[in-house]
Amino acid sequence: MPEAQPVTERDGGTGRASAPAGGGTGQQHDPTDRGHFGPYGGRFLPEALIGALDELAAEYDKARHDPEFGAQFDDLLTNYAGRPSLLTEAPRFAEHAGGARIFLKREDLNHTGSHKINNVLGQALLTKRMGKTRVIAETGAGQHGVATATACALLDLDCVIYMGEVDTERQALNVARMQLLGAGVVPVNTGSRTLKDAINEALRDWVTNVDTTHYLLGTVAGGHPFPVMVRNFHAVIGEEARRQILDATGRLPDAVAACVGGGSNAIGIFQGFRDDPDVRLVGVEAGGHGIDSGEHGATLTSGSPGMLHGALSYLLQDDDGQTIEAYSISAGLDYPGVGPEHAWLKDTGRAEYRYATDAEAMDAFQLLSRTEGIIPAIESAHALAGALRLGQELGAGSLIVVNLSGRGDKDMDTAAKYFGYVDDHDTGGRS
Amino acid sequence: MSGLDAVFAAARSEHRGSLIGYLPAGYPTLEGSMELLGAMIDGGVDLVEVGVPYSDPVMDGPTIQAAAGTALRNGFRLRDVFTVVESVAARGGHAVVMTYWNPVHRYGVDAFARDLAAAGGHGLITPDLIPDEAEEWLTASAAHDLSRTFLIAPSSSQARIERAARASSGFLYATAVMGVTGARDQVGAGAAELVGRAREVTGLPIGVGLGVRSAEQAAEVASFADAVIVGSAFVSQAGSGTRAVRDLAADLAGGVRAPSAGEARPSGLR
Known about the structure:
Chain A is an alpha/beta fold. Helices cover 41% and strands 16% of the residues of chain A. Chain B is globular, with a radius of gyration of 17 Å. The A-B interface holds A 1, 34, 42-52, 54, 190-191, 196, 200, 203-204, 207-211, 305-309, 312, 315, 317, 319-323 and B 54-59, 61, 65, 69, 72, 77-78, 101-107, 127-130, 132-133, 135-136, 150-157, 160, 164, 175, 178-180. Chain A: This is Tryptophan synthase beta chain. Chain A: The beta subunit is responsible for the synthesis of L-tryptophan from indole and L-serine.
């Protein structure tokens, strides 16, 4: 089953061809035609969906080479999402990082408040190209749901968002936001009632309504072509960040850090640096209450290969192949799977994966707020916690870019309870 | 002639469709599931589909999801499926196993095939494994002489139907509608068309599932397909006990023997 990964070479150091912003037309590091990254990826889904995946793959392949599509996408990224996002140095925060310089890639400043908008705009445009009129999506923290509802409002598409019941409680404000934008929000009360089950329910909807409906998957997981397509729509993050850090400092960073749930923001920023062998790519997973507690979302750190939601990747599973429920204080990292390309990057050693616990992430969350006046998403706070430790390891004079994937407004309820700013009698019993 | 071929040939010789009934192993308990499957055989199903309860059953509607959840909460372990298959064989019944792929992958594909064959199972139905990804299973099933049933759907292209048929043995599974499992008032009109498209490329028996719950529907499906597959309706009855399951099996067995059902084209003779 494993197929050889085409060996690709660097495209000549800094003289990179300037691909259309976010167009992701570069095909190096693409999976095989059947969507395999080494042994990972592929399609482990019902036959009923294969036709739709084939259609999507064909349409995406045409679109990524179509200058008109690239121009449309770039126009939306620039004039609607607000790209390029800033690269902000965080010197007061970095004082806690062993003398390292830390720069933040400000995806939190995008329209809708996270990196999610990049992929959503790309897929929504594809939905129109395919002549489909209805979009469904899953959401955990609500960021992807809000972004999807936003793109559907903009492009006049019907929109239904599946969201675990636990998450609708944790992220009530985002539910209201999606409804305001005209989307229907369906609380999912099966299984663990979180992101994983929202994806299951979205897949059930898709298999029933595939003629009219596009499943706008929000991360680099799922059956081919989702992992490569979503990656390429987010590649703009890394392309911008690489250019910006060179402009700001005249050199490449020693490390790039990003949080990893499904892994879309991480793969997006990694993509810009993966051909720079001296740049360490560091993914930071959700350590929850600690790996030994069994309550975490650290799939690459402690999982094993298995299939979930259409791809072979790392997975939190028991001896019988039953999925183990993940846990994290952050709804967006509370996922027992991970994108297949991350599994391959781990196995090949090109990227490394570690974790930050709830407590470490919340410390970093508070620290960034107080030292830089930037309230990060709790997801992104995991990357910040990872950067603090990386700084200690790399030492004075080192340079780190952190992907600040989202803003923390949506997390104020969780944070206020965590830090005791409000009564926590109704936290929903998750911690 | 392999075990499954004999099952379909026997029904064909009686000019009727075959009846295939599904229940999850371990539902509501391990013992309980073996009694329910026994009742199903007593009621007249030709072949039982033993389901593997799984945490993330994306092809299943609420009825089977809930049953799988109950089985898992009541302690179902994957190896229990072999105990259930053995009990079917011991009762003179015929069993195939229907399973999502990750449990098999985790157990080890060859080891699972070996243990299923040893338990007397005839093969596997794989709802989320397509032939494109099935290399390891093709090898293991051949090594242990097990049948492979892949699925086709109304959305399948003719090329994909051909691919699924070529990779399958025993029988081919046609999903009657686009959707998940669950009893429906009407079986999709697309089912007959799908079976017709499959007949153009294969002589394998073709079973139709998703949504069948009554003798009338069974008769209708048996008029164009070789086998009628009933799942959620059995799971619903299982809540009422063995008698309800046996009665439903007998009712459906009557359906596949109804005069209109006898018009099924004998696929093996084309």
